[in-house]
Amino acid sequence: MLRTQIEHHNYRYYVLDDPEISDAEYDVLLRELQALEAEHPELVIPDSPTQRVGAKPAGGFGEVRHRVPMLSLENCFDDDELAAFDRRVRERLGVEEAIGYVAEPKLDGLALSLRYEDGHLVQGATRGDGTTGEDITQNVRTIASIPLRLRGKAPKVLEVRGEVYMPRAGFERMNAEAAERGDKLFANPRNAAAGSLRQLDPQITAARPLAFYAYGLGETGDWPVPPRHSAVLEALRGFGLPVSREIRCVEGLDGCLEYYRDIGRRRAELPYEIDGVVYKVDNLAWQAELGFVARAPRFAIAHKFPAEEMPTRVLGVEFQVGRTGALTPVARLEPVFVGGVTVSNATLHNMDEVARKDVRVGDTVIVRRAGDVIPEVARVLTERRPADTQPVELPTACPVCGSEVVRVEGEAVARCSGGLICPAQRKESVRHFASRRAMDIEGLGEKLIDQLVDAGLIDHVDGIYRLTRDQLVGLDRMGEKSADNLLAAIERSRHTELARFLYALGIREVGEATARALARHFGSLEALVEAAEADLLTERDEDIKPKDRYPRLQSVEDVGPVVARQVCHFIAEPRNRNVIAALRDLGVVWPDIADRAVAGDSRLVGKTYVLTGTLEGFSRDQAKAALEALGARVSSSVSGKTTAVIAGADPGSKLAKAEKLGVQVLDEAGLRTLLEGGEAS
Ligand SMILES: NC(=O)c1ccc[n+]([C@@H]2O[C@H](COP(=O)([O-])OP(=O)(O)OC[C@H]3O[C@@H](n4cnc5c(N)ncnc54)[C@H](O)[C@@H]3O)[C@@H](O)[C@H]2O)c1
Ligand SMILES: [Zn+2]
């Protein structure tokens, strides 16, 4: 059963270059079989996958018999297993002292045998099943880093073994090009290298970014082989063959582990992928003494890096609320060992990503954790999707505070609208409230806010105005003087402006400019609340097109449906209103600015003016505020709907446009008349 399963995956991997499962999963299966066979030696048959290498070639290429077999490597996955290997080696050799090993990066490509006769490349062959490989000489000749002629005095016969691989950069470029053409992408550089090398048309191979590193020998004829593996590699380099510069001689287990950790740290920076380290006994006489088992030498071992990708099941999806209120879907997973740690949660980033990857609860997914990056769901194994999966749905209420969740059309991120009251957003809302352009409370910085919130002294921004001297003095690193300074700054901030206050509330999409526009337009908080409440009703009206909703707020300069919606929802949240009321009770005040409009002097409602050029008696902002106080709208561009353009000195193109459209033009005197209630002419 297990055997057939493994054979199937061998075929997919070695013959088709199109595996169905990850290497880590495959390794688990193989280890299961090894354990089973170790318990029941009578079950071991000679052609069990544990006894064999790779798979028999599928045809299409000529066959090559390897006179020196091409074997696989024993694997180990942790320090203990490596220690056991080192112990076995020393026991077999009867050696006490530390063994000299050669540590080599384990390139993730495929094995290649190159045969040189009298210095000329005569054959290139794949490993196949270890004894019989494929003749891919024509393809091999297209790989630039493989010399067609050896340098120096060449032996009569020399078989060189090594790895063909695809450097990361080439792999990424190739996949990007394939994506552009709409072709199938390669899952990883190994499959890309294998698929490229085993093309029946060498032209295709030639176009692929393949490279080669030599790491060993096959048949050597009468060539006097040097006595150490490290010297062999040096000799190969002398013949002009590429040998990795990362290869090192190390001493004993400790030397191996040190090399492993060092290259593991640099793994992501290497220009090619490696999946571990290979250690080989350096002394070739010892290698011969140690010999082989069925499928691998006893003198070498591959120390694998922990898999960065593993499959597991999605048990559920939860939403985390970030400090700015953003909701992040997080998959709860059946715990899985990946990237060297056990992972039971992985981010799904946002709802667009959930949709793009098509993740459902109950799915089997590939979890990825590379380096120290937070684990993420890389992709779904849709072929393993059961019938009863559940879609992931964005909650309508914030899981932390229950406020409504708002997701703006066209935006990936959904957010909690309870900015002032959501515990997840506490620190951020206090920080923003106190910042210089908002309430400008000097001395209330991030670190202090962390302390105050963590100590439970502030829940919401109104808590700032309840802080006492005793509470402050009790804090870490807070002297009496700084406590007094802070209290004074808090006191000063009570007298503010409506625009600052609106900005300080931290309503999504409401920056300083919008806060100012809202303040100017409505003049008072009450007027804004009233408009927001009325506008909110338009949301439920099916007859109103989305872009025409919130008409009162949309009549504010530069406020479109997106901003209007955020403002309405924020204001409509009763608990946000409670905080605002508490702030006012605690003495936060500002002068209302548009008393005249509020009092009913709104004779310019429905009219739109555009200002251009420099006025003598008004700044641009003053002129604007004065017009808006009478209910007018001030726009920045001239159109057929413009009531009049008010032109000062050195007017710009707006004047020309007004003239072209036949829009009325007023000078500064005309503006005064208009503001004073006379008929402008
Ligand atoms: N996903 C699947 O379905 C599937 C199926 C079969 C095998 N596999 C994967 O293939 C691997 C096992 O197969 P394997 O026996 O081909 O090889 P291996 O990767 O375990 O080790 C042997 C190979 O390592 C390579 N190698 C790289 N650098 C080397 C160096 N410096 N010195 C010596 N050899 C070096 C050689 O090609 C050699 O043949 C595992 O990683 C397994 O997960 C996956
Ligand atoms: Zn919330």
Automatic annotation (TrEMBL):
Q: InterPro entries attached here? A: BRCT_dom (IPR001357), BRCT_dom_sf (IPR036420), DisA/LigA_HHH (IPR041663), DNA_ligase (IPR001679), DNA_ligase_AS (IPR018239), DNA_ligase_CS (IPR033136), DNAligase_adenylation (IPR013839), DNAligase_N (IPR013840)
> Which UniProt keyword terms apply here?
DNA damage, DNA repair, DNA replication, Ligase, Magnesium, Manganese, Metal-binding, NAD, Zinc
Residues making up the signal peptide according to the UniProt record: none
Q: Which residues bind NAD(+)?
A: D23, A24, E25, Y26, D27, S72, L73, E104, R127, E163, K280, K304
> Is Zinc one of the keywords?
yes
Superkingdom, natural source: Bacteria
One Pfam family it belongs to: HHH_2
GO CC annotation:
cytosol
The protein's required cofactor(s) are namely: Mg(2+); Mn(2+)
Active site feature: K106 (n6-amp-lysine intermediate)
In this chain, Zn(2+) is annotated as bound at: C398, C401, C422
Query: What catalytic reaction does the record list?
Result: NAD(+) + (deoxyribonucleotide)n-3'-hydroxyl + 5'-phospho-(deoxyribonucleotide)m = (deoxyribonucleotide)n+m + AMP + beta-nicotinamide D-nucleotide
The record's listing under PANTHER family reads: CHROMOSOME TRANSMISSION FIDELITY FACTOR 18, DNA LIGASE
* Function description: DNA ligase that catalyzes the formation of phosphodiester linkages between 5'-phosphoryl and 3'-hydroxyl groups in double-stranded DNA using NAD as a coenzyme and as the energy source for the reaction. It is essential for DNA replication and repair of damaged DNA.
Stated name of the protein:
DNA ligase
Protein species of origin: Acidihalobacter aeolianus
